[in-house]
Amino acid sequence: DTGVSQDPRHKITKRGQNVTFRCDPISEHNRLYWYRQTLGQGPEFLTYFQNEAQLEKSRLLSDRFSAERPKGSFSTLEIQRTEQGDSAMYLCASSSGTPSLNTEAFFGQGTRLTVV
Amino acid sequence: LAKTTQPISMDSYEGQEVNITCSHNNIATNDYITWYQQFPSQGPRFIIQGYKTKVTNEVASLFIPADRKSSTLSLPRVSLSDTAVYYCLVGDIMDTGRRALTFGSGTRLQVQP
């Protein structure tokens, strides 16, 4: 499977714990995005990378959230001191080509986080 | 701030043509209009993209008037498997002045037998 891969698919954690999600984009895709989606809502933009550079962060990305993309390949999204409001589906997407919004983005299956 | 507005939901029957219209009054000059489809518990999937006039691919057509302030996704002869949420996207300006793709609430299409 050469699509966007996310791991784990599901994560249940206790409030206050730290969690880390991984995203493996399509090989050679230079753009990588993170979105968060709650039930019944559209995906909310969190952040995106152009290669290894994090170019944009949403206001939704509080200090408890951090994302990295070392070497411009896979990316990790860490949430520290999780809260129940962090329960959501976390989606990763990647795209190729010139730095443009007008390139098809390929999404992974997402990681569903449940904070209890 | 670019923003899209779509109907919250639509109902149709198998075999019918479905048209979903999206308004994007503040679309930027260089922005394309992109539509995604999402099934429950899956990531969104690209359907079609266009800049102006009409674009057609194997699954849908996209109609964009000259002023580009709206667009219409047309799904010919829908089947039960087309039941999904459909999102219309244009670029959105972030605090840094850069643009990013942001999703609205989408249109829930329910296809009945």
Topology (SSEs and partners):
The complex is a heterodimer of chains A (about 120) and B (about 110).
Chain A (H helix, E strand, L loop, with lengths): L4 E3 L2 E4 L5 E6 L6 E7 L6 E7 L2 E5 L7 E4 L6 E5 L8 E8 L10 E2 L3 E5 L1
Parallel strand pairs in A: 2-11
Antiparallel strand pairs in A: 1-3, 3-8, 4-5, 4-9, 5-6, 7-8, 9-10, 9-11
Chain B lengths: L8 E5 L4 E6 L9 E6 L6 E6 L2 E4 L4 E4 L5 E6 L8 E6 L1 E3 L5 E3 L5 E6 L1
Parallel strand pairs in B: 1-11
Antiparallel strand pairs in B: 2-7, 3-4, 3-8, 5-6, 6-7, 8-11, 9-10
How would you portray this structure in words?
The complex is a heterodimer of chains A (116) and B (113). Chain A is mainly beta. Chain A has strands at 5-7, 10-13, 19-24, 31-37, 44-50, 53-57, 65-68, 75-79, 88-95, 106-107, 111-115. Chain A is globular, with a radius of gyration of 13 Å. Chain B is mainly β and 113 residues long. Chain B has a five-stranded mixed beta sheet, with no helix packed on it. A four-stranded antiparallel beta sheet of chain B has the order 2-7-6-5, with no helix packed on it. The mean pLDDT of chain B is 90. Classes of the chains: A mainly beta (116), B mainly beta (113). The A-B interface holds A 4, 33, 35, 41-45, 48, 55-56, 58-59, 89, 91, 93, 101-102, 104-110, 112 and B 30-32, 34, 41-46, 49, 51, 85, 87, 91-92, 94-96, 98-106.
